[in-house]
Amino acid sequence: MKREPFFWITISCGVVIMAFILLPLIQLMTSPSLGMLRETIQDKDVVRSIWLSIYTAGLAALISFVFGTPLAYLLARREFSGKRFVEGIIDLPIAIPHPVVGIAILSVAGKNHWIGQVFSELGVRVMGSVTGIVTVLTFVGIPFYLNAAKTGFESISPRLEKVSRSLGASMFSTFVRITFPLAWRSMLIGIIMCCARAISEFGAVVIVAYHPMIAPVLIYERFEAYGLRYSQPVAVWLVSICLVLFLILRILTLRNAKEI
Questions:
Q1: What is the pTM of this model?
Q2: pLDDT at 46
Q3: C-alpha–C-alpha distance, residues 81 and 22, integer Å
Q4: What is the C-alpha separation between 37 and 232, in angstroms, rounded?
């Protein structure tokens, strides 16, 4: 069967895009030798920064899960005036330039704002602290969790919840026993997406908390001070972590598709 020209155009564009994405990553992953990678992962500063990235990203994902789940459920189950406006606000962190995110957070958490003054009186420091890092990572990561969880809740028939309520179960009991078990995979996908997005954040973090250093900031500092040779191995380890997260994400997404 003869292929039409449009078919070859689609194939050509696909090859160009795949090459555009893969070539820099392949070059990055293959440039450092195994000895350099081994030496890098034995560096206490590198290990500390990577673990700090994982720890703060995990906290951001946990916060998104705890506070974002009720809102995601509300958006999935209720129609109300201003709903589209709320959804637009939720997606704002995706579109805002990341240095602006850092400046915005400091504007609220600084001593010139009443919230910052309350934090200061309580002994909570945002700038140059783990608290500041977690705040930034939650800000940039929570839209990914909310959208994934909302999609999961929307995929569940409201009839199942109505049956549970008609049998005398409370709204909370219905959510825990019916909705949560059916939507957990979508929620886990959202947590992974939030965590992966948080691990990769740089622009906002470098403004709010240059120290203590998370991995992206350490990579930037080593690149500025020593060039590619000393920044590449750290980048390889960070990319490897992100690849593991996205591999888990793809497996869960594939299982979701099969169940549907």
A1: 0.88
A2: 93
A3: 45
A4: 9
